[in-house]
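Data deposition worksheet. Section B asks for the primary sequence of the deposited chain exactly as it was used as input, without tags or linkers unless they were present during the calculation. Section C holds the resulting structure in token form. Section D is free text for depositor observations; keep each observation to a single sentence. Incomplete worksheets are returned to the depositor.
Section A, Depositor: J.P.
Section B:
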Amino acid sequence: MIQPQRQPEMPDLRVVPVADLLLHEQHDAQRSEPLLQRLRTDGVLKNPPIVASIPGEPRFVVLDGANRVTAAQALGMEHIAVQVVDYEDPELILDTWYHLIKGMSVEQFKELLAGLAGIRTEPADLMHARALLARRESLAFLEYPNGEVCSLFAEGNLHQRTQRLNDIVDLYKARGRIFRANTDHLPSLLPLYDDITVLVVFPHYAPAEIVDLARVGAFLPAGISRHLIPRRALRINLPLAVLGNGDSLAEKNRWLSDWMKQKVAAKAARYYQESTFLFDE
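Section C:
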């Protein structure tokens, strides 16, 4: 007997005030500036930021889309379309990106790191460095192409240690090139990149920590938190003219609801369940 296919749950798209969106990470100027220019030129919001409600508040924490929100603020937009997700959805995964650094010498990186206040370094083998980070006893650890591993330590609470992470990223974000990696096994990355300086491995965070950081404005460095969102909405291509007109928030949300019904009726909304590689990003 052929089982009928279940209709996937549609994404929760809403128009919300830009002022109600709280970032938990720094925006990346190298990405937000070109995005700002594209928004001005194209006049459409291609992909909505992903946000989660903050319990007991009307505000939302931005899980993915800090650069889009920053660009919307720069454009003076009052409202923006977002996809609202449940941060306690078991299918939503909070992971961590690591930073693979190129474009500066190992000696230059070590010299800058040695001059950084509030950071203590300690040599370690890889397994011990992983264990220290998993227990949150260390702040992060470093892997160099020659096999050298070094744990980084800092004192203080979550917010103070987050500032130390920003201090570390500030050492290289303007001097080198950052590539995001999802493995701390540097040997598997060496064949893919030339002239690697170092791999910076960050801790894993809990959703409660992300919300706490957002509420007090203690941002993580850009490109660390990685949210894997089920049923993510992409390529909605909403006109900025609609989001920026003089209609009320309720009127804009009614328009968005009608827009989604029209997309579904025209079979223009398609759900892809399989994992996918894109080569035109």
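Section D:
The chain has a mean pLDDT of 91.
Residues 27 and 67 are 5 Å apart (CA to CA).
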